[in-house]
């Protein structure tokens, strides 16, 4: 019995001696050191002689809690099956592909004009008759890609917004 009591008391003394070290293991001391010039440094070791020292105790972090498990089980015990949500179908925006009688191709975001006068343009003849224009409705994406194509006859008639309108966000092709 004496041996059991001696072992228990020895164990109790060991736990009491270790307990401050255990509590310090979770919390940490930080030293705030201020030198003569007023510069501040935070460090884990005490400050050098000649510096003003302030000891700051940092509290231990709170215990980690388990994240809630939302939707893993149904309130009635059955597992909840989810149906995939369908995204609302975006409305397709349309533009127009316009073609003149001579084969020039250009794009507009509004309807194609009935005719085009090419007389005032480079390569056009003065006094030339107006050319009839036919058009078809196409998705805006296709029209924006077509406007970016180079070396196409009729590019000068494309419905391209000014830099001012682009800067104000009025470019119909900004999303494509």
Structure explained in plain terms:
This protein has helices at 2-26, 140-147, 163-167, and strands at residues 28-34, 40-43, 52-58, 94-100, 105-108, 115-116, 131-139. With 176 residues, the protein is of the alpha+beta class. A hairpin with a 4-residue loop joins strand 4 (94-100) and strand 5. It is elongated. The N and C termini lie far apart (88 Å).
Which terms would index this structure?
single chain, alpha+beta, three-stranded antiparallel beta sheet, elongated
Low-pLDDT stretches are 21-25
How much is the average pLDDT? 79
Number of helices: 3
End-to-end CA span: 88 Å
Widest sheet, order of strands: 5-4-7-6
Radius of gyration: 40 Å
Q: Quaternary arrangement of the chains shown?
A: single chain
Overall geometry comes to: elongated
Class by alpha and beta content: alpha+beta
Strand content: 15-25%
The total count of strands amounts to 7
**Percent range for helical residues?**
10-25%
Major beta sheet summary: 4 strands, antiparallel
Topology as a string of helices (H) and strands (E): HEEEEEEEHH
In short:
With 176 residues, this protein is an alpha+beta fold.
List the helices and strands and how they pair.
Layout: H1 2-26, E1 28-34, E2 40-43, E3 52-58, E4 94-100, E5 105-108, E6 115-116, E7 131-139, H2 140-147, H3 163-167
